[in-house]
Amino acid sequence: MNQFITLLATAVACVALVQGASTARHPARPWWNAPPSSERIVGGFEIDILEVPYQISLQAYGHYCGGSIIGANWVLTAGHCANEYDVGLHVRVGSSLHGSGGQLVSVKRVIQHPQYNPKTSDYDFALLELEQPVQLSEEFFAVELPEQDQEVEDGQLLQVSGWGATQNPSELNGPLRATNVPAVSQEECRESYGTNQITDR
């Protein structure tokens, strides 16, 4: 069980910070190379799935969450996105569009972290075991995990990607997007989200 929790903690650190070493092989567009403000897409810039091949779309009657491939049979997602009672879940892999392309794979089992607390952000992650393995290759690979307890400096730019809110409702069903955000301290994060959501853990 300790090994499982260590794997989850390590994996979530990677996904939450979106800082896999895999970006060295397929580098995402850095902040200094982002489109000029006049050409920027609201909520970030479009990217191809080959830049973040581990990105998946979690679906139940359509897209509703994202996640990252961490192994041929495993996906890491947020704990608030899935629990063991969910049925009919699928993940779409290998596509820049969440509604088509790539491969649609059924989720066999959801393992939500046993200490997940929906009232805070603590342990907000879950593992999805897939019914069949996804085909990994030089182009489509799992996200590379950071070292355990690896630290990220405040202000370091990190990339986030997905099909989430872009401040423009017409773009919700659009292509994969990314944006670069600076890492912030625990204290600053707590001030932004509220004292009940961000704990000392």
TrEMBL record:
GO terms for biological process: digestion; proteolysis. Its main location: secreted. It is an enzyme of class 3 (hydrolase). Residues 1-20 form the signal peptide. GO terms for molecular function: serine-type endopeptidase activity. It comes from the Eukaryota. The keyword Signal applies. InterPro entries: Peptidase_S1, Peptidase_S1_PA, Peptidase_S1_PA_chymotrypsin, Peptidase_S1A, Trypsin_dom, TRYPSIN_HIS. It is found in: Secreted. Coiled coil: none annotated. One of its GO terms (cellular component) is extracellular region. Belongs to the peptidase S1 family. CLIP subfamily. This is trypsin. The lineage of its organism: Eukaryota, Metazoa, Ecdysozoa, Arthropoda, Hexapoda.
